[in-house]
Amino acid sequence: MNATSEPGTPATEPNRQVSWYEASARNRVRLLLDPDSFLEFIGPELREVSPHLRLFDLPEQFDDGIIVGRGRLAGQAVLVAAQEGSFMGGAFGEVHGAKLTGLLRAARDIESMPVLILFDTGGVRLQEANVGELAIAEIMRALIEARIAGVAVIGLIGGHSGCYGGGGLIAGCCSALVVSEQGRIAVSGPEVIETNRGVEEFDSRDHAMVWRTMGGRHRRLLGGAESYSGDSVHEFRQAALDLMHSVGGFDGHVLQAEQARLEDRLRRFGACRDAFDVWAAAGIAEPRAIPGLPNEQFIALADGIARLNPGAR
User: Fold this and answer.
1) Is the C or the N end of the chain the one with fewer CB within 10 Å?
2) Is 305 domain-assigned?
3) pLDDT at 43
4) Of the candidates 132, 51, 55, 57, the residue with the CA atom closest to the CA atom of residue 90
5) How many structural domains compose the chain?
6) In a domain? residue 67
7) What is the domain-level CATH number for residue 75?
8) What is the mean pLDDT of residues 82-107?
């Protein structure tokens, strides 16, 4: 670190301009954390690749599309996992899933170190469907065990691949989520819904509709994310810092409150046909203005309206 830098502050703060959406997983980690603080576990030099992809003549990647390790965020020790959306859509396979499971189990045993998961995934790899689905279950169990042990697990979502399939399930188990406008979250992606239900049900080419249905603004207004961020790495860093020190514990009362929140959400908005209808039912005066609001105005609106979900996750 530069001797003139304050502890925990990037020397030149290059993350102020770098787009989270456009950055690679390694750049997100490098710029999110304090300079030179990241130590990677099971790095590319170990060549822990998927044992399945070569059977399909598919390219391998030496980190299998996920980076795990530890570092510091403003001086605070953290564990980090970052998915690479440009490799197989950030999809979960056997090795990819095992690395995240191991990180969460380590967090459970350490107890005092927060975990940051930088999601960028389309779900489970079709070529590793069985082991990928098993990996999702193992990750969810390890994540819940870590939270029971008192670990804060923060998800950051704003990449090209979004957070779909099993990734969406894992994100729902986190202590809190940071999303940007690009941070789409859903169990089924637009193309999957269209294939199974028809274009009349969901037109995957209607990007405006996809964004307002699955995108970060809708998720924030629904209470599915605790923080909304602009697209820069700097803004994600600040949001992660805020949540690391504000998330609560995890017990049966938290689960009961979450169940009550979801029941209330279904009761209030279950008949709505579009996000515009949901926003109007929530009391937003100009729902059709939501997609075009500048970030600052949207954040003020989201923080100021009566929450669609009573009680925190």
Assistant:
1) N
2) no
3) 84
4) 132
5) 1
6) yes
7) 3.90.226.10
8) 93
The pTM of the full predicted model, rounded to 2 decimals, is 0.90
183 contact partners, CB below 8 Å, separation of at least 6: 157, 158, 159, 162, 163, 215, 216, 219, 225
Q: Is residue 7 part of a domain?
A: no
More confident of the two residues 270 and 306 = 270
Tokens representing 282?
């929530």
What residues contact 262, with CB distance under 8 A and at least 6 apart? Answer: 309
Maximum CA extent, the chain: 60
Residue 115: inside a domain: yes
**Which tens digits make up the pLDDT trace of 208-261?**
999 999 999 999 998 899 999 999 999 999 999 999 988 888 989 999 988 998
Range of the domain at 123: 14-180+229-249
CA–CA separation, 207 vs 226, rounded Å?
Answer: 24
